[in-house]
Amino acid sequence: MSTQQVGVELRLLGPVRALRDGTELVLGSARRTAVLCVLALRAGEAVSRDQLVDAVWGDDPPQSAAGNVYTYVSTLRQLLEPARGRWTAGRLLSSGGGSYQLHLTPTSVDVLRFESLHAQAQRQRSTGHTDAELNATAAALRLWRGEAFAGVPGPFAEQQRSRLTALRIATAERYAELLTGRGRQQEAAQVLRELMTAHPHREEPRRTFVVAPPVAARPTDSRVSTGGSRPVGSPVAARPVELASRSTVPSAGIPAAAPAEPPVRIDAAPLLGRDRELLRLRRAVTGVAAGRGGSILLEGPAGIGKTALLRAALPHAPAGCRLGWAVGDEATRDAPSGTLRDCVESALTTGPGRRAVGAQATAADPGGEPGADQAGDRLLADWGDQVDATDPDRTDADVATRTVQLVRRATTETPLILVIDDLHWADPATLRAWETLGAQARELPLLLVAAVRSGAERAVGPATAETLTLGPLDSRSAGALVRAVASPPPEPDDLTRILDDADGHPQYLRQLATEGIDPFPGSGLVAAVTAHLSPFPDDTRQVLRAVAFLSAYEVRAPGSQPAGCTMAEVGAVTGHPADDLARMLAPVRAAGILAPGDRLRLRHRVVARTLCESTPAALRVTLCRRYAQRLAEAGTAPERVVALMLVGKALVDECSANWLAEHVERVAEAAPGIAIAVLAQAHAQHTLDPARRLTLTAWLARLLLRADRNAAAEAGWVAARTADPELAGEMRWIAAHSHERRGDFETAAQIAHAALRERRIGGHWIEQLRLLLGRIRPSLPGKPTEPQLSRSRLLGGGRPSVS
């Protein structure tokens, strides 16, 4: 097949990007991207499936690796050629004979362009054409946008990353050398400085930098172009280590390598709390080896541990059986029977009929190649002829029927175990064939095991299928998991919070144990929550964010579950009618994202907290202000409005301060903790109207005292600024009483004496302060019979004196 001239461009010298006619394509999973990278660097060559498996997984591929490659290629073909007919062969990404070939010109892949320009520069150097070499070297370096293959897993990507990084460094060093030869020392210094910053342990750029000929500093050009303050020349040579540690602004010619986004960390840990389910699966495996088949459906929310359980129960094919694995993928639903083919193909390419590579031929197989499995190969060939053959009139039902026939044939050779994870994403033909096979499995040496997400729309199981539902881990198993994963083990208080936040969810337990309890954008915890919510439409996810905001601040007993919010509150802030909300949230309830009950709350506190804290600050402020305003307009309880103000962490402005002053009494009565938090924010706002700020701070002092907290500073602040005798007396008494509660009797007496001496307070508060002085008199310094303060002065409010 000739190379196709298409508008596809692949950029691998940095975060991997694929563009078709200038539009960026969403490549999806990291391993799918890794497959594309391998094919891209070998564009125009046939790459076998085994080579792709080795390149992506290395020496320890999973059972489903071969099938996954097929799925990844099918998805990539749909991405790169969206106009290709369903039953037509790929022209840009073709397959045949168990291998795949990407038909792109070298100019469509930036790595190949870089290598071509580097080779061109080498040729120019050998002929002495340094100007042409300089141009080719500069063009090669401009292709880089960061670390090559950033974030791509697998030994192939790692090897290429290392090779290309070394080639980039050598090219940059030669570029600096060429610049220096033309008297462009400042540009050369900039290039070397960037190399030293990105690769501080590499000696070559450091030596080149140190021995670079100095240039006299000129008044108009005495500073490094990146904003540094050191003149180029001997000062640079004198302190190379310091310069290596300084950050610089990337030049246009050599962009600094962007750090790859850290992968989600899922630490290895023992399978805990799943003994019953593990035993059931292992018994089913024993049964199929003895000829007794069946169908098992493993159900549970995302991240609950379905995949971990499958791997623990089926780490390898039992003796005398074939084991096939596949993973459903939303992007492969247009490949008829593609998911089931991945599963069957992985079973037929490994198993009892395929000898180990390198084994000697036998009389029964005199001419076969090492590793040959004639029965499996015949079945795979028949699959291609009967299932994958191009036929525009075929339906999903036709494909399913032929698939069932081939699977039944496979069971006549040896017992067969087929496992499909995330079956809810499988194509319609796979689902239809799986249902048919499930109804027949008991009559065959065939065990079907499927994992599906709770609430997912599916048609996967006949009435005979046995369902195992995975729920949260019990507290004992959850604690054991956290202690097994965390390093060092968490403190008791942190462990309690982790268990409360995760509510037995294994993936959240792992993330919290390894990353800590405070999520941040880009963390594995945020990625996990995002992945769990990604199957739902955008408007549903926005409603869930509103639920998280509305539930963030609540008054509840320690250890109790949050009460959540009402459907009316969510409708008020989102503008969705109740019927629409019920429809939008139905699949979320079925998937276990929402807790059961009439009120709406996210089942796992960590999800609610992550949705709040990972929302960009500016957006969080905007949303919460809008939600608070809508709740206030709807006549919602004021404490609910104030709670949203706190979630947004927005400054209290004049509008919200006026509203707060009007409703503060109600908020203080219903939710004093929330009231204290928002009043403290108001007190800190120096731009508020002074009278309004004074009123709100007085309420803050009252509530702090009620909460048995120190209110002296706030009360003293109000007393020093108010002209109202009643308010001044109340604040003086609060300040003195706060010190009395803390046992600071001398300061309490001083505040009371000062207030009584000024005589600017109301009569009620004069009496209260005198009563306070009477209470604390026995505790003041001096002997009770010979106190330092005379009784007349103490009770009359005159100037203190020593008796």
Automatic annotation (TrEMBL):
SUPFAM superfamilies: C-terminal effector domain of the bipartite response regulators, P-loop containing nucleoside triphosphate hydrolases, TPR-like. InterPro entries: AAA_16 (IPR041664), AfsR-DnrI-RedD_regulator (IPR051677), BTAD (IPR005158), OmpR/PhoB-type_DNA-bd (IPR001867), P-loop_NTPase (IPR027417), Sig_transdc_resp-reg_C-effctor (IPR016032), TPR-like_helical_dom_sf (IPR011990), WH-like_DNA-bd_sf (IPR036388). Residues 1-104 bind DNA. Residues 1-104 form the OmpR/PhoB-type domain. Residues 217-241, 354-376, 782-803 are annotated as: Disordered. Keywords: DNA-binding, Transcription, Transcription regulation. SMART domains: BTAD, Trans_reg_C. Coiled coil: none annotated. It comes from the Bacteria. Belongs to the AfsR/DnrI/RedD regulatory family. This is AAA family ATPase. It comes from Micromonospora antibiotica. The lineage of its organism: Bacteria, Bacillati, Actinomycetota, Actinomycetes, Micromonosporales.
